[in-house]
Amino acid sequence: MKIYKLVLPFLFFISAFCIAEVPTHTYSIVARDPQTGELGVAVQSHYFSVGQRVPWAEAGVGAIATQSFTEPSYGALGLQLMKAGKSAPDALKALIAADSSEDVRQVAMIDANGNVSAHTGKKCIADAGHHIGKNYSVQANLMANANVWPAMAKAFESAQGSLAERMLAALEAAQNAGGDIRGEQSAAILVVSGKPTGISWKDRILDLRVEDNPHPLQELRRLMRIQEAYHHEDLGDNYIAENNLDAAFKEYEMASQLEPENDELRFWFAVSLVTTKEKDKGLKLFKQIFEKDQRWLELIDRLPPAGLLPVEVVPEIKSVIKK
């Protein structure tokens, strides 16, 4: 009975706005990594900017996908209910009970303890269905065939790597099985940390969107690779600050392997190198960057006033372009 008391303040809101007017037909996955506690949602749809409506997640609370004829309040209120201590099944049950249009909704929720629940309304456009597994749920509607969500489940369970990698593998399996009968357009992936810091932006490990693209999953995988490269770059910078050069160069090398043509990553690696015993290596890297684009050469003079580069090394750096 207590759960309905929590929902009562929102009943008018839901009844007023639960109108079947946002047709975000799609396939998605909500999942939890039992080792790290990370929670995530990944989604693809033939609909513009699917990431604005379907995925919801909060560190230490839960993750939600709300789709078909989408009602975003399932995301906001679902997280509130789980944050108040309700399990994902209880939260979803309460919201469905308050929704006069539940027969066109498709919603999945997972809480921080790994409890999972999903709902596919009887009027969701075929092929439509969901599959609940341990620490995850996959769901889809308006699919080319009924093999889509079973393929997602199999892919997620067999995939290796981070939660994000496994969720993306599930999306790719959905597409390979036929996917959305209308084709592809947008995709998104959201992952939050297992232990909340109380600072929402720090808790977001991954938050990427492809708003409009003929191959959104390919683009999403490319963006994930770039983000990983920048993550290694950031770790390298932290190690430089700690004077742990061996660890820093290892991180920079990993970033370079992921994005070998990224001049942004190479430039700041070179800046770090010239302030260490690896100055010659840094100068060589600067030469390669400047020969490709001399705008980076102009940036060199702007770094010493910002405290990012010793002024005494500037002439030597700039001289490499003459060699």
Explain the overall architecture.
- The chain has about 325 residues and is an alpha+beta fold.
- It folds into two domains: about 1-215, Aminohydrolase, N-terminal nucleophile (Ntn) domain (Glutamine Phosphoribosylpyrophosphate, subunit 1, domain 1), CATH 3.60.20; about 230-320, Serine Threonine Protein Phosphatase 5, Tetratricopeptide repeat, CATH 1.25.40.
- About 45% of the residues lie in helices and about 20% in strands.
- It has helices spanning about 1-5, 10-15, 75-85, 90-95, 150-160, 165-175, 200-205, 215-240, 245-260, 265-275, 280-290, 295-300, 315-320, and strands at about 25, 25-30, 40-45, 55-60, 60-70, 105-110, 115-120, 130-135, 135-140, 185-190, 205-210.
- A hairpin with a 3-residue loop joins strand 4 (about 55-60) and strand 5.
- The relative contact order is 0.11.
Question: Which secondary structure elements does this structure contain, and how are they paired or packed?
Answer:
Layout: H1 2-7, H2 11-17, E1 23-24, E2 26-32, E3 39-45, E4 55-58, E5 62-69, H3 73-83, H4 88-97, E6 105-111, E7 116-120, E8 129-133, E9 136-140, H5 148-158, H6 163-176, E10 186-192, H7 200-203, E11 204-210, H8 216-241, H9 245-258, H10 263-273, H11 279-292, H12 295-300, H13 314-319
Antiparallel strand pairs: 1-5, 2-3, 2-9, 3-10, 4-5, 5-6, 6-7, 8-9, 10-11
